[in-house]
Amino acid sequence: MKVSRALLGDQKIQKKKTLQDSSVALLACSSYRKAILKETINTLLEGLSFSIPPGAKVFLKPNLVTAARRDGLACTNAEFVASVAEWFLDHGATVSVGDSPAFGRSRQVMNSCGMSSALQRLPVKILDLKRKIRVMLDCGVSVSVSADIWECDQLINLPKVKAHNQMRVSLAVKNLFGAVLGCRKALAHMRYGERHNLFEALLVDLASVLPSGVTLMDGIVAMHKRGPVDGEALNLGIAGASKNPVALDTAILKTLAVEESLSPLWLECQRRGMAGTALGGLFFPLMRPESFHLQEFVVPAALDPVRFQVGRFIKNGLGKVFNLN
């Protein structure tokens, strides 16, 4: 759905889509080598029968959580993102790449994790997300999301498989929170974190209003034990794709042998009866979750509060803005 520029800014608008697709493509992928990645991504998208019209305006939304961790583990792998960008360019799309970290700019994070260098050879536009549009969600919360993401023809969601100290796991649905602009994400934690299921409802509602597209998940080297920043590397060797982020999350949780009920976001999707929460209703055109024999993916035993402590929020925010950390 296209939105005229007259509606941008502080206007509150709403659009909805139904997440019905049940196909989830899963593949083993052992390396971030370019040739292997290109073949993997092409096979995943062919498995979903995914295509785009020539000239489509595509936005790639990786996980760019922070520039503080120099090894790039907290972010979607740079070569993974570049290979996805190349697939869409080869199929006639115009490609933009960006995210909206809670503090700092996406360009800063991309420089730190090597993504800027990986994309340098490609005709893609790297965006620091500044233009906003106000969106009213079904849960009664209005949020400022990126107008660049809102206006694209296809949103390509590129999450990293990570443990998460507040959500236990960070997968496809959680990654869409990056569409909310900058420090407004932290403010959402502060404002809605103590209200029963409201923060989870906000995240799930975002998945229903953002533009349609496809999720391609980087689980080749994952982060486990803690997250979304301070976890440890785990060589999983898996990549996945779906047009329905809820379905992909269900499949990945099964593949990781993480009980679905441990994920607050999955529970919110199940409570709503959303398509994709029932594993038996999913279609796997390539590999099935039980086909993988992975190393143990460890998640936090206890979750931190969603609402940040005020002192920590201010300290961390100032530290990231002024590079004090």
Task: Give a written overview of the molecule.
The chain is α/β, with parallel strands linked by helices and 325 residues long. The protein has a single domain (22-299), classed as Rossmann fold, CATH 3.40.50. It contains eleven helices and twelve strands. It has helices at residues 34-47, 78-90, 106-113, 115-119, 147-150, 172-175, 184-192, 198-209, 245-255, 264-271, 310-321; strands at 9-13, 25-28, 57-62, 94-99, 125-128, 132-136, 142-146, 154-158, 160-164, 168-170, 213-224, 232-242. Strands 2, 3, 4, 5, 8, 9, 10, 11 and 12 form a nine-stranded mixed β-sheet that branches. Strands 1-6-7 form a three-stranded mixed β-sheet. Strand 6 (132-136) and strand 7 form a beta hairpin. The chain starts with 8 loop residues before the first strand and ends with a helix. Mean pLDDT is 87; it is low at 1-12 and 310-325.
| CATH architecture name | 3-Layer(aba) Sandwich
| Average of pLDDT | 87
The CATH class is Alpha Beta
Q: How much helix is in the residues? A: 25-40%
Strand and helix layout:
Layout: E1 9-13, E2 25-28, H1 34-47, E3 57-62, H2 78-90, E4 94-99, H3 106-113, H4 115-119, E5 125-128, E6 132-136, E7 142-146, H5 147-150, E8 154-158, E9 160-164, E10 168-170, H6 172-175, H7 184-192, H8 198-209, E11 213-224, E12 232-242, H9 245-255, H10 264-271, H11 310-321
Parallel strand pairs: 1-6, 3-4, 3-8, 4-5, 8-11, 9-11
Antiparallel strand pairs: 2-12, 6-7, 9-10, 11-12
Helix pairs in contact: 1-2, 8-10
